[in-house]
Amino acid sequence: GGPEGVRGPRGGGAPGGGGGTLRIGGDKPAIAMPTAGLATYQFLGGTVPTDNYGRTGQLSAGNLLADFGSRTLRAVDPLTVTFSAGAADRVPSLRYELAAGAQWQMTDATQRLSGVSCAGCAAGTAQGDVNGRFLGTRATGYGAVFSFSGSVPVQALRPNGTTTLVPHEAAVAAGFGRR
């Protein structure tokens, strides 16, 4: 549901309905991770972003920097997920961005990201999460699922044409290779 003329989300959690947590990368690595040093990981590709209104979007990303001493990852370049306006669901075009310099911990758990903005969302509602894993016996790759959410102003199909906020959720998986 949602306001008249606005198709509602298809369920909680992951876009498309089922809810729950999407995890990639399998088991924890059987090798010891480096405890010091830096490594750059170049964006190799990702899935097509999807949202809770059935739309597909576009992903753009650059490099990540892994700091094994502080156990952190940092976006060297912005990571953006964009969606065009949808006529059927009346949801406007959106652009989520994880800013260059955003940092998160090397951990097995999903964690909230700082440095997330959304052009097209109501002010202050943009959020993002990441769940990632290093891949390969020498941490030659990094794969992650990025999810974004926000409240989106939509004009309802009512005689007075009022605007209401509806939830928006999106997710994408991305892969990075060590340079």
Q: Note the main sheet.
A: 9 strands, antiparallel
Shape category: elongated
Provide the β-strand percentage band.
Answer: over 45%
Distance from N terminus to C terminus (CA atoms, Å) equals: 46 Å
Rounded to an integer, what's the Rg over CA atoms?
18 Å
Determine the oligomeric state from the structure: single chain
Give the topology string: H per helix, E per strand.
EEEEEEEEEEEEE
- How many β-strand runs? 13
What is the averaged pLDDT score?
Answer: 84
Structural class, from helix and strand content? mainly beta
Runs in which pLDDT lies below 50 for 5 or more consecutive residues are 1-24
Number of helices: 0
Percentage of helical residues?
under 10%
Care to describe what's here?
- The protein has strands spanning 38-46, 50-51, 58-60, 63-67, 72-75, 79-83, 94-98, 103-105, 111-112, 116-119, 127-135, 141-155, 163-178.
- It is mainly β.
- The model is unreliable at 1-24 (pLDDT under 50).
Q: Which properties best describe this structure?
A:
about 180 residues; mainly beta; 9-stranded antiparallel β-sheet; 4-stranded antiparallel β-sheet; disordered N terminus
Please outline what is shown here.
With 179 residues, the chain is an all-beta fold.
